[in-house]
Amino acid sequence: MRSAPGLLGGVEPVLRVPVRADKAQERGEIGNLFGGWLMAQIDIAGGIVAVLRSRGPAVTAAVEQLAFLVPVRVWDVLSVYADLLDIGRTSMRIRVEAYVHRNPQAPEFIRVAEATLTYVAVDAAGEPRQVRDENAARHSAPAAAMLD
User: Which of 53, 56, 68, 116 could form a disulfide with 64 if both were Cys (CB 3.0 to 4.6 A apart)?
Assistant: First the structure.
């Protein structure tokens, strides 16, 4: 997707959150966070892109691929980036990458997970609805471009 030190060449994340584990069951014995929390953050970031692009509600239909690359630690700062890959009639495939900022004394910026998810635009009754084809040129644009 992108490779650059620091903030991925100035691209803003869709989501940024400090990693906390308020409950013992949220982390392992050595301070690493369980994967379910990270999966939720990835899904939230992808969902934001889907809602912005479809201009309405969207639901997670599938997790096509998810890889945990490096453990996430308590007190890392998680930044999640997402890009729209494809648009179908009612669905959108979104690529998500998660990074952490770690160790303020000797800062590190580490890619910790990557995923590809499919979201379906839905109407008020929860039925699939067509994703408008306006902004067709933006299909592969970063999420920030969809806010224009």
Answer: 116
